């Protein structure tokens, strides 16, 4: 090996900041190379992918609309991941939140008071938490691996949603399309501004952001979660209750994912449809790690992820680029980000001496 | 014995090993003659392990020369070292517990040596020749620690051994077992085998070794003949001019009972673990009670029951009580509220979270000392506490933001102990407080414990280090197979007697509630 990695022994502060920049540069370079090989002008493609979507207020508001559910899910996941509880089930928790929120909204079609919205959001949030609660129960009661159970619950959630949208919750006046009736206005999240689709979910997300930030950075509960994640034995030694913390982390995680789900149906969509989420819950896993499980980092990462979603759609529409290419671009970015993170803990070293060593070895034998 | 004409068996010249950010060995010279028993002395972190790994071929030196029988060698890997006749017994055994002695030895020797069955007679022969009784067909998990060590040694002796390296071999043995080991080692040396004996126990180095090389901070700080040096001189070579190395503390008899363990029995669900039976123990205010014992005789289990990591059912809550209040069913934090403090055996990963800063690690156990208000961590107060611990207990660290894992063992132990002491505990339970800690830090830790005792706290120390227990404890007992010997005043007890208790030779505890009045242990 010409290149070797040596442990630094501690985190390198400058690299903590430099690594995302380095990753961005590498992504842009190799992305350009990829587009050039495919016969597209690299600069134009990058412009279409990354800059054109933000050209006007509508673009920015669309970016926020996409970023909100990702942000909510990722904030919740950060709480669980700090405790080293690998909740992969944000997608299912989100779908369950959307389903329960819709069911509530359809019950309250005739209600005019603003309480309708409160009930809808509450129903979705509680349902998401409950869905995560199943994982928590299996984990604390039977020591079942939460990765497996939460993934499997994702599929169950999706099929539950499909069942309800094709069956009990289908709009009787909807010409047999698999969708529910439109919610009443009182159950919808109000728009933030006249133009665009940005909705009141923004406030929910900001609230969640502050709450998770306080929880993880300031509160003793967050400290317990961190200790549990870093060192289970030390947590037991001082009497932190592991089971309670696991329950708490998963419930928060599920509640925020459920809130994201209900925010979608009560926000931009306005009814229950089979395609509530294009995989927000999975994208949030990446976002949570990209943001280094730090609430503020997660904000940046979810905006970036939303931009890639939008840019991908834009490139499909204006440049006829297949979706696979934009996914490839996303993948490259994630790869470089994670690869550059290695530099935080390791120092690369070129082994130019290897030839000398070889000579030495031959001399001694 | 070495003669001037024959080359030494092993000679190291100016061996250096550079790790990133750390010069582990700095121009080390060392030579061993055939039949010589040489001690390699030094604190943790002095570079002993690195040097051994270089000799055994585990790692390569950055520079320097290694001569074997006068010839320059490059030790490529442990297989090559074994081929030359170098054997090594590590501190932590590498044995498969579910296999027999013969199978373990056959595994290590490779297929060429034969099947386990074929090896059995040879194993018997070797173990008898060197006075190490060993039954080849026994399963390793049924062996005591001392016997397991014999397996490791016999494994080395099965080949034509020229140099045997032992890494702190006596740390897991009772004094009697250690003496038996020394007999074996002397016999081996008499046959011409060189022995490199790594230790930090000065007494046994003096008893066994003809010569000693002392390392400090990666360098050789001196060569000497242990028999001609005092403990203090050796300790000075190891740590430099540390103060308060030699001190004896007055013994006291304590006041009112603080901790009471009453007929505590606990069944261990782990089949290889140790169950406790009828532990009866009392620690009074203003005294230190020491519990000796070879590792794995129920220490971990007893500690977990005292700390609250293992809890008893409510019906048995009175088995452990603090100042008369039953606590056996309580979680650790509830016990801490009542005045218990605890220093676990493992510093990193148990007593402190390696990746968290010292500040956060101060918060870890001191969170009930007004550091949390309305659920929020009071960062300023936490920082003050951490700074105070660092200052009062002379913890060497850049600042309180340093991660726990970046501290040396001794410094981290001072921090953990300081953290517990500053909470003004009524009862402090400390497990192996100076294990793997350098002499200077150990003295500081002992002084801190004595000061806490004199301030009226009750202290229970569980340790494998008999010297330490005799130095600081006022009453002493020993654990063996989950049973606790009666406690006796340290001033009237001999090490040999405690050694017998460690081997299980004591009468069952009399049903008396005053351990001081319990009869002295009767040897069987």
Automatic annotation (TrEMBL), chain A:
Q: Which UniProt keywords apply?
A: Cell membrane, Membrane, Sugar transport, Transmembrane, Transmembrane helix, Transport
> Where would you find the membrane-spanning parts of this chain?
16-37, 57-80, 92-109, 115-138, 150-169, 198-216, 245-262, 282-312, 324-346
Write out the annotated subcellular location. Cell inner membrane
Topology relative to the lipid bilayer, per the entry, is: Multi-pass membrane protein
- The answer to whether keyword Cell membrane applies is yes
Superkingdom of this entry's organism?
A: Bacteria
Q: Which PANTHER family does this UniProt record tie to the protein?
A: ABC TRANSPORTER, PERMEASE PROTEIN, GUANOSINE ABC TRANSPORTER PERMEASE PROTEIN NUPP
Q: What is this protein called?
A: Simple sugar transport system permease protein
UniProtKB/TrEMBL annotation, chain B:
Give the record's keywords alphabetically: ATP-binding, Nucleotide-binding, Sugar transport, Transport
Q: Read off the SMART domains from this record.
A: AAA
**Domain ABC transporter spans what residues?**
10-242, 259-506
Enumerate the GO terms in the molecular function aspect: ATP binding
Question: InterPro entries from the entry?
Answer: AAA+_ATPase (IPR003593), ABC_carbohydrate_import_ATPase (IPR050107), ABC_transporter-like_ATP-bd (IPR003439), ABC_transporter-like_CS (IPR017871), P-loop_NTPase (IPR027417)
Q: Which residues form a coiled coil?
A: none
Record-given protein name: Simple sugar transport system ATP-binding protein
* Organism expressing this protein natively: Pseudomonas cuatrocienegasensis
- What taxonomic lineage is listed for the species of origin? Bacteria, Pseudomonadati, Pseudomonadota, Gammaproteobacteria, Pseudomonadales
């Amino acid at each position: 090996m010409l290149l070797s990695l040596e442990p630094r022994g501690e985190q390198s502060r400058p690299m903590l900041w430099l690594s995302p920049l380095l990753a961005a540069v590498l992504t842009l370079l190799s992305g350009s190379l990829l587009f050039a090989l495919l016969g597209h002008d690299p600069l134009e493609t990058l412009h279409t992918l990354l800059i054109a979507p933000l050209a006007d207020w509508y673009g920015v508001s669309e970016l926020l609309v996409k970023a909100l559910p990702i942000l909510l899910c990722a904030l919740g996941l950060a709480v669980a991941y700090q405790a080293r509880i690998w909740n992969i089930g944000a997608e299912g928790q989100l779908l369950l939140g959307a389903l329960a929120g819709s069911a509530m909204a359809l019950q309250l079609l005739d209600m005019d008071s603003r309480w309708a919205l409160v009930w809808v959001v509450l129903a979705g949030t509680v349902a998401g938490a409950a869905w995560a609660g199943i994982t928590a129960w299996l984990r604390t009661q039977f020591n079942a691996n939460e990765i497996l159970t939460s993934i499997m619950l994702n599929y169950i959630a999706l099929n539950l949603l499909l069942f309800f949208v094709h069956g009990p919750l289908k709009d009787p006046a909807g010409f047999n399309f698999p969708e529910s009736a439109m919610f009443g206005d009182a159950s919808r999240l109000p728009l933030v501004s006249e133009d665009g689709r940005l909705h009141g979910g923004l406030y929910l997300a900001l609230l969640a952001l502050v709450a998770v930030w306080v929880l993880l950075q300031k509160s003793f509960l967050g400290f317990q979660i961190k200790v549990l994640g870093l060192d289970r034995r030390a947590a037991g030694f001082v009497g932190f209750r592991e089971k309670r913390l696991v329950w708490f982390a998963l419930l928060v995680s599920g509640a925020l994912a459920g809130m994201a789900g209900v925010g979608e149906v009560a926000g931009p969509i306005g009814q229950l449809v089979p395609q509530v989420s294009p995989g927000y819950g999975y994208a949030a896993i990446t976002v949570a790690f990209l943001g280094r499980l730090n609430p503020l980092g997660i904000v940046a990462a979810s905006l970036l992820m939303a931009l890639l979603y939008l840019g991908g759609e834009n490139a499909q529409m204006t440049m006829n680029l297949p979706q696979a290419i934009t996914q490839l671009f996303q993948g490259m970015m994630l790869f470089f980000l994670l690869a550059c993170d290695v530099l935080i803990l390791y120092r690369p070293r070129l082994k130019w001496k290897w030839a000398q060593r070889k000579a030495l070895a031959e001399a001694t034998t | 014995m070495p003669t001037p004409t024959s080359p030494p068996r092993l000679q190291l010249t100016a061996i250096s090993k550079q790790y990133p950010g750390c010069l582990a060995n700095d121009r080390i010279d060392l030579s061993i003659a055939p039949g010589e028993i040489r001690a390699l002395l030094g604190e943790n972190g002095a570079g002993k392990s690195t040097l051994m790994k270089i000799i055994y071929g585990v790692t390569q030196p950055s520079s320097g020369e290694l001569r074997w029988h006068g010839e320059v060698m490059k030790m490529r890997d442990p297989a090559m070292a074994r081929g030359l006749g170098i054997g090594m017994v590590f501190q932590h055994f590498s044995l498969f517990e579910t296999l027999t002695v013969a199978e373990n030895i056959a595994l290590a020797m490779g297929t060429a040596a034969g099947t386990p069955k074929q090896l059995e007679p040879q194993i018997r022969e070797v173990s008898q020749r060197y006075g190490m009784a060993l039954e080849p067909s026994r399963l390793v998990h049924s062996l005591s620690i001392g016997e397991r060590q014999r397996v490791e040694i016999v494994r080395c002796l099965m080949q034509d051994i020229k140099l045997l390296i032992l890494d702190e071999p006596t740390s897991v043995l009772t004094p009697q077992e250690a003496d038996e080991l020394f007999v074996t080692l002397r016999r081996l040396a008499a046959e011409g085998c060189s022995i490199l004996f790594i230790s930090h126990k000065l007494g046994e180095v003096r008893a066994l070794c003809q010569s000693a090389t002392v390392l400090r901070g990666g360098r050789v700080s001196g060569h000497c003949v242990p028999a001609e040096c005092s403990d203090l001189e050796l300790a000075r070579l190891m740590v430099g001019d540390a103060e308060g190395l030699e001190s004896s503390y007055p013994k006291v008899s304590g006041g009112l009972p603080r901790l009471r363990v009453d007929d505590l029995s606990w069944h261990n669900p782990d089949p290889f673990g140790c169950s406790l039976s009828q532990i009866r123990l009392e620690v009074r205010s203003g005294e230190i009670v020491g519990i000796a014992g070879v590792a794995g005789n129920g220490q971990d289990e007893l500690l977990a029951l005292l700390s609250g990591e293992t809890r008893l059912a409510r019906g048995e809550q009175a088995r452990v009580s603090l100042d008369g209040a039953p606590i056996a069913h309580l979680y650790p934090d509830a016990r801490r509220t009542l005045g218990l403090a605890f220093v676990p055996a493992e510093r990193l990963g148990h007593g402190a979270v390696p990746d968290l800063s010292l500040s956060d690690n101060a918060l870890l156990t001191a969170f009930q000392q007004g550091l949390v208000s309305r659920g929020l961590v009071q960062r300023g107060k936490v920082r003050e506490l951490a700074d105070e611990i660092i200052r009062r207990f002379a913890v060497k660290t850049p600042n309180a933001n340093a991660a726990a894992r970046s501290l040396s063992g001794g410094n981290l132990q001072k921090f953990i102990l300081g953290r517990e002491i500053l909470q003004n505990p009524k009862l402090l339970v400390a497990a192996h407080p100076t294990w793997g800690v350098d002499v200077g830090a150990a003295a500081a830790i002992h002084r801190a414990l004595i000061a806490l005792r004199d301030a009226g706290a009750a202290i229970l120390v569980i340790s494998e280090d008999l010297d330490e227990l005799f130095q600081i404890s006022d009453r002493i007992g020993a654990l063996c197979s989950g049973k606790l010997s009666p406690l006796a005043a340290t001033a009237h007890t001999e090490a040999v007697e405690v050694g017998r208790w460690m081997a299980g030779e004591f009468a069952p505890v009399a049903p008396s509630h005053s351990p001081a009045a319990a009869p002295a242990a009767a040897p069987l």
